[in-house]
Amino acid sequence: MAAATTSEPSELSSSSSSPIEAPRKYHFFQNVEYVQRPNEQGKVAIIRFDNPDKAVNTISFAMKDEAKLLWDSEIHNDTNISAVVFSSGKPMGFIAGADIGDIKSIEDKRELTGIIEDGLKFFQKMKSKGVPLVCAINGPALGGGLEWALWCDYRVCSDAAQTKLGLPEVKLGLLPGFGGTQNLHPLVGLQEALGMMLQGKEVRAKKAKKIGLVDMVVAPQSVEKVAIDSAFALANKSLKIPKKKKSWMNWALEDTSIGRNLIFKKTKEMVDKNTGGAQNYPSPYKIMDCVQHGLEHSSGDEKYKFEREQFAQLADTTQAKGLIGIFEGMTSLKKHNFGETSQPIQNVAVLGAGLMGAGIAQVTAEKGYTTLLKDKDDAGIARGEAYIQENWGKKVKRKRMTKYQHNINTSNIVPLTDDSVSWQKHFGQADLVIEAVFEDLNLKRKIVADMEAVTPSHCVFATNTSAIPICDIAEGAQRPENIIGMHYFSPVPQMPLLEIIPHEGTADHAKAAACEVGTKQGKTCIAVKDVPGFYVNRCLGPFLVEVSALIRDGASLEALDKAMKNFGMPVGPITLADEVGVDVTSKVATFLSNADLGVRMEGGDVSVMSNMIEKGWLGKKAGQGFYTYNGKKKTINADVKAYIQQYVKKDLGLKEEEIQNRIVSRFVNEAVKCLEDGIIADPVVGDIGLVFGTGFAPFTGGPFRYLDAYGADKYVGVMEGFAAEYGPQFEPCQLLKDHAASGKKFHSD
């Protein structure tokens, strides 16, 4: 992308380069290149970010210090420099954000205020040189990367699909600390800026240009050249930065005190609704405080001082530590140690075109795989294709997918039925088969035999069973080493987790194939042991039993949902059962009740759901479950409310905190038991599994970080109290007791 770098000026244009590349002076930057042109006064300095140790550039403490050194030694006092262009030496990527490891390494988070102030002074010194500062953005400019760009005068970005700009710090429980809360809204407007920061939204090039975040959008190969051209033009004043025109309505809302008060009032209402309050997610509230404070103290450095103080406070919260833990865990799980696949995966077959199968086919086709979608007849295939087309139609309408990509994705799907003359020929080229049929062991074994008869010997067979042990499905197979579990969660296009379940005889190449496809589908893959329920559903079993026990003890359906929403779950247990399907939830709970969990599945009566199935109350998909659904509105099903009264033994008048602790303790204890039994490899897998698979309060960082923050000894005390009052199902597992006795935490960081 870049010409050979040199610390000496190029003669005439950006295309000229010295025949011998000069030794590299810096670690985080390529050598500064200077461009001179005929009839132009001065030269343009090109500073390219390029950390050779990482695939992406990040802003670290060391990078900040080196940037100061570079600026002071080469740029600031050179009066011949008429403009500066910031670019990247990476083929695709500007700056992906700050180095989270640096933030974690600071023991006393108050020290961050001084470090951030030092960085801010560097940006202010850049501005004080008084020459145009231009950014050439090709690829992601996120977090601190976008903040760097916001300190510049002019931004040129590429229209590459990988180019995205945003301030996603809120997703880590933090806020933009290098002036982002102050520098974004003057460019894009108050409403747009709040939306970007509070939701961590990333915007693509076209939208960025429309809202005023960038000044030009060009082809990827032209970004740096256009940025250099723009730098010369800004320097000689032939290019002026146009002021964004604001409608009368936006002026009234954003530039008057009455309008701003209304915006902040409505924004806070939205944040309250989405987060459950500052006690769960303090960062959105701190972001609003920073923006508001800056508007009230618009001149001087007070607004930046307030921002960095709020950043340091957030960095010390358990919420930030939890969310950062999830981010780091998700990043670490993108890699696996199973080696290579036996053959490149190009053709993926999906058996069953129901909601699960169609969802799997959708995310597979979107990633470029030739996707064979097979059902028994045309009606089944038609329903599956209709589901996929509806989802893609929504993406096109919302401009999250181009019509061209829609057509490509559609062409990747090959619909097949039992009557299709060519289906066996197509399956003869399959590299991976994923079955998503009914939860019936004999049916799944039959499908294995049918597939082994028509697929090539290297083809991996994956079952999407939610609870049946994989070893049972593989029993009697010709190629058991190729059989593995790939447990998706519903709805597949939205749920980010995929459990990879090898049985004892599964070959590494099959594990590698499952992980490769799952990761490419956009899933975070966790490898778990082949036991009944695997990991996520195994933890949900005691959780569901306790919900039924609470119904027995007089807790209302509304109170159960409200309690767990207030704990931090995205939905309560009653809504969860409806969304997953009462029939599916009941089957999992019944299966686990008869499995190997023993007393841990006691204490309640899950037959409440099996009787609902007989009445057709299957959940959201049927329009009636615990709730009755009318479009987007839902109300408690009056018939169900009357029906469950027969299960109420005595109303104990339970308070919300006890409801929360009874449900969550059964959940958390089972997660620790899974670690004790080697079902999961480590606490990171355990945290990611329950956060991504069940929505376990994300701000806690997952069950293991939740225990670390709560204190294992204190939590054991709570559970032992429940065990004395309600029964042995609350007895803490041995590993949890061990941590309570030793004071050891599950996470060392």
From TrEMBL:
Entry EC no(s): 4.2.1.17
GO biological process terms held by the UniProt record: fatty acid beta-oxidation
Family annotation (Gene3D superfamilies): 1.10.1040.50, 2-enoyl-CoA Hydratase, Chain A, domain 1, NAD(P)-binding Rossmann-like Domain
GO terms, molecular function: enoyl-CoA hydratase activity; long-chain (3S)-3-hydroxyacyl-CoA dehydrogenase (NAD+) activity; NAD+ binding
Disordered: annotated segments: 1-20
Entry similarity comment: In the N-terminal section; belongs to the enoyl-CoA hydratase/isomerase family. In the central section; belongs to the 3-hydroxyacyl-CoA dehydrogenase family.
Name of the protein in question: enoyl-CoA hydratase
Source organism per UniProt: Leptocylindrus danicus
Lineage of producing organism: Eukaryota, Sar, Stramenopiles, Ochrophyta, Bacillariophyta
